[in-house]
Amino acid sequence: MKNRQIGNYTKKISKSGLGRILVFTGARQTGKTTLVKKLFPDYAYLSIEDPLTRADFTRLTAAQWHSLYPKAILDEIQKEPVLIESIKSVYDQFSEPRYVLLGSSQLLLMEKVRESLAGRCVIIEMFPLTLPEIKADEPDKTQLSLFQKILTDPVQKMDYLPSFNLDPEMAKKQAAYSHYCTFGGYPALTNPTLSDEQKYIWLSQYVRTYLERDIRDLASFRELEPFVILQRALAVQTAQTINASTLATQVGLSSKTVQRYIQYLNISYQTISLQAWSRNQTKKLTRAPKIHYLDHGVLSGILQKKGGMTGAEYESLFVAEIYKQIKTLNIQPMLYHLRIQGGREIDLLIELPEGYIAFEIKMSQRVSASDARHFSGLDEILDKPLLHSFVISNDVRTQQFPNGSNAINTAMFLG
């Protein structure tokens, strides 16, 4: 299996007093079960998905859990939320037992966790593979990307290679990047025995399973067609600012329904809503959020595409990878986009305690100083220092522009 960066944090926290109950959540097929089985080989594995055995577990007392399963992995725990109460009772009565709870529905799982396990558990989110994880050719070795190194010390001044061609790991990074741009980051698709056609079939089936299982678990739909229409409309408009009323008119749904469906996509780990930065009320800033799909392979599956990418899809691919790499480091910066009425725009703005990192995202093979023009004067708008500004593209050249921003190749920056 691919080494997951979140694994190091998981092992560390599991040995602390806070780690007696770990709650893993995330989209299906992101590798939750595989990871926890590897990290906790001495834990009993209990699948709650089987309705025949599910009832047996609900009848166990806290003392029986302590005796029979002092260490256990409970998979698909959202299928029987009453078991969370059982684990709470074991936690409160005994100090030795340790449990790992897995679930693929953030809403169904987290509502019960907040009710019963507040202050008793650590929540860990799992996402598809990041580029460093795809690139790693050794099961237990995953290096930090250049972006992640910047995050760990955001005020440092970095020296960048003058060209991606000089990167000693260029071939590995480019191979991982090419795979990611075509199929996304789901672990199953890194299997070298699968043909490209089999990978496309997997993505198509994933989209179908998501609709038939995850969304039906999440919301009691009488019919799925309205949700499918909205899902596809958002896929077509990925990386664009979204006005719920306008979108509602386009798809023939009410504004409230559109907002509810977007929430479903967010909490089921299919999309993220990138809020508009709006700290300075004296500026005329666009406040509509942008919707980004979290996996380009799934986006392609929804649109039934085989290869090819638009500029907007490229922007979503980059934002999603940034989001995942941040999550694997278990840090909590805020992510925004910024648009001033009149056309000036920053595609991605990351807020850290020390200041901001800004990105202009271009799919082109060649960039120039004009692509960095929106960074000029950005300090006058922001309420913290602008620590770094980057033009990210497929250009292999590393450049520094007069306004202090840097142009860096996407695969070199994120791989």
UniProtKB/TrEMBL annotation:
InterPro entries: AAA_14, CB, DUF4143, P-loop_NTPase. Coiled coil: none annotated. Pfam families: AAA_14, DUF4143. Residues 188-273 form the Core-binding (CB) domain. PANTHER family: AAA+ ATPASE DOMAIN-CONTAINING PROTEIN, CONSERVED PROTEIN. This is Core-binding (CB) domain-containing protein. It comes from bioreactor metagenome.
